[in-house]
């Protein structure tokens, strides 16, 4: 993969084995990168500044990496190996819909904050968090809780969350985000996700699909990842050093040649987002499992069309060319 001199591929010491748990780890010195290809973009001055707080609350600014168009980026030199490691013939799976997926709890202005106790407190944003007793918990082993406060334009995310009798919460790890900022988490830090990334911006929503436009990348999982992460990821969750395995943060896209014209509307909206904005590897899990919201407005029948896609319909891209500064999630146009 071509890289700029500012792009870091960071190996992490002491990472967990292949599991979905976002274990904390301490980064080692960066691995030397190959020389930048002719025309590759170097890092510009730090630009994590966000739009005015007076503006509307969106899920990160328009120039955030989650909103970056990757349809014209060059294919990564590691693409074939990474696709093969995830599963070239394996079918894609929309891990969301009506009755399953990641629920989002919206809270009103002034929602009372409660104590949150973390197993990995050294890499979690300290509480209190505005998480009500009624917050929806993801079913299954990861037990994510995602809370969005649109009045304050902030998001709060927990991994392995359990409500306590006194109304407080216990969790494996947690992160809080200013949705008007491009600032990334500290390098080497986990979040509520193994890659140290926010979960909320990677979830297609039914209302986006109904409007015909999903304007962001989509979170997805792979069975085995490398003991490494690349921008914008901040954390790895593996002991494997095989270069044929993708690192956390690797970005893929649905190939332009894949015909999605006959997909029903909801599936077509998701597939088009995968072509334009791609997908970011964010956790260890089942191959080509794409995350989204749990919402009764999804049609599971329509989303089933995505299951006709397979690994060879995807390719990894060199997203390093988008990077403005390693600690910022701001991307180049």
Report Rg: 19 Å
How helix-rich are the residues, as a percent range? under 10%
Name the strands of the widest sheet in spatial order.
3-15-11-14-13-16
Alpha-carbon distance between the two ends: 20 Å
- Mean pLDDT across the residues is 87
How many E-type strands? 16
Largest sheet: 6 strands, mixed
* Pattern of helices and strands: EEHEEEEEEEEHEEEHEEHE
Estimated structural class: mainly beta
Low-confidence residue ranges: 1-53
- Per DSSP, the total helix count is 4
Per the principal axes of the C-alpha atoms, what is the gross shape? globular
Tell me what portion of residues adopts beta-strand conformation.
15-25%
Biased composition (Low complexity): 36-48
Biased composition (Pro residues): 24-35
Region (Disordered): 21-48
Signal peptide: 1-19
